[in-house]
Amino acid sequence: MKKVLVVDDSLSVARQLEKIIADSGDFTSVGHAKNGAEAIKMNHTENPDIICMDMNMPGMDGLTALRSLVVLDKDVKVVMVTSLGGVGDKFTEALKLGAKNVISKPFEADNVLQILREL
């Protein structure tokens, strides 16, 4: 089973994503970080196979954390999570910075799992 770290400042969104992950049978959630700084620490302590990280969070946002994660671990697999609103430029920037894909909110379980299984 692949280990997934969920990073989102919204507890309800994180729980939704963790439920999709847990119900899949292919993945297990190894924790929940509330911002980019926590994600960087938890990547080191939990050693997840995949990080699902919200783009917009208080403190350190997802793109800033992505930059640091890629420097610390060139093989890190990060999937950015965003609401359909502000996708455009940030979507492109996230992929340029090293994100493997982008998941849109609201979540569709089949879509989320397909993206995670491709990693």
Helix share, percent: 40-55%
Q: Can you give the mean pLDDT?
A: 94
Give the ordered list of helices and strands.
EHEHEHEHEH
Numbering strands along the chain, what is their spatial order in the largest sheet? 2-1-3-4-5
Number of helices: 5
Task: Give a description of the structure.
The protein is built from 5 helices and 5 strands, in the order E-H-E-H-E-H-E-H-E-H. It has 119 residues and is α/β, with parallel strands linked by helices. The chain has one domain: Rossmann fold (3-Layer(aba) Sandwich). A 5-stranded parallel β-sheet has the order 2-1-3-4-5, sandwiched between helices. 33% of the residues are buried.
What's the SSE blueprint?
Elements: E1 2-7, H1 11-24, E2 27-33, H2 36-46, E3 50-54, H3 62-72, E4 78-83, H4 88-97, E5 101-105, H5 109-117
Parallel strand pairs: 1-2, 1-3, 3-4, 4-5
List the main descriptive attributes of the protein structure presented here.
alpha/beta, 5-stranded parallel beta sheet, 46% helix, single chain, Rossmann fold, 119 residues
